[in-house]
Design brief:
alpha/beta, four-stranded antiparallel beta sheet
Length: 263
């Protein structure tokens, strides 16, 4: 699935948050959306997922404009995992994951064998099979995040949009999740704070700053020392670890502001 936007802009209370973002994500790509807090990553993801109506610009899935699509139709193409969820329920974990099948069911019909099989497969992919019968309130924050990802997978989407999905996960599950996303058949756009994860697992990072897309290329071309200094205000560089994996080496925070020219 190809996900594109053209001149996408969105404001809140008169303040521009997303500013003229045009992007093109090829089918099957795993793309990292990077930028400091307040750069507009979450708002851009919500616009692309149809959860916010942009003030200007357009979103296309496989070349088809989605401005007038219903939420149900969008949910059959795209799954969105929020950074934090306020879900408070006594449902079992399997039932929460089963909510991902809602776009494909008639309103008054319960789950059938296909739905149950899809849910079981999604739970297995995130390592939660053993917790399928546990109540939602009994889960840790990391387990809940993995369940939300399983719910998204249960939608069997063509595209996955994820907003900081590694925030509540321990290191092992962060790596497992990124391996899952990098190996997925779907087109993936994932907002990340961990630049080393983006460098290692993402095909083409996109760098946002003050609501604008300022860089889009390979990790080596995006995660330059200059960009890391100008945008993240750190003295760092992209390097290769002992196993040949890309990683960010940090020397420390910058003590002076770096000019924002030529971004």
């Amino acid at each position: 699935m190809r996900i594109t936007s053209e001149g996408l802009s969105w404001s809140a209370s008169g303040m521009p948050i997303v500013r003229g973002v045009s992007l093109d994500i090829a089918p099957g790509e795993t793309v990292g959306l990077l930028g400091p807090k307040g750069s507009g990553k979450s708002s851009l993801l919500r616009c692309l997922a149809g959860l916010r109506k942009p003030d200007a610009g357009a979103v296309h899935f496989d070349g088809r404009p989605v401005r007038d699509w219903s939420a149900r139709r969008i949910a059959r193409r795209i799954a969105f995992v929020e950074q934090d969820s306020a879900l408070d329920t006594d449902l079992r974990v399997a039932d929460v994951v089963g909510l991902g099948r809602t776009p494909f069911r008639d309103r008054w019909r319960g789950p059938h064998d296909t739905d149950r099989a899809v849910v079981a497969a999604a739970l297995d992919r995130v390592g939660l099979t053993a917790l399928a019968g546990r109540t939602w309130k009994a889960l840790s924050g990391g387990e809940r995040q993995r369940a939300h990802i399983a719910r998204a997978l249960a939608q069997q989407p063509y595209g996955l949009l994820l907003d900081e999905p590694t925030n509540h996960l321990d290191v092992k599950h962060q790596l497992e999740l990124m391996e899952l996303l990098a190996g997925a058949d779907q087109t993936v756009l994932v907002a990340l704070h961990d630049l080393s994860l983006a460098a290692r697992y993402c095909d083409r990072p996109r760098l946002m700053h003050h609501g604008r897309l300022v860089a889009s290329a390979t990790p080596a071309a995006v995660l330059t020392s200059r960009h890391l200094a100008q945008i993240f205000e750190v003295d760092a560089e992209l390097a290769t670890d002992a196993r040949g994996h890309a990683a960010i080496t940090y020397r420390g925070p910058l003590r002076t502001t770096v000019p924002q020219t030529a971004l």
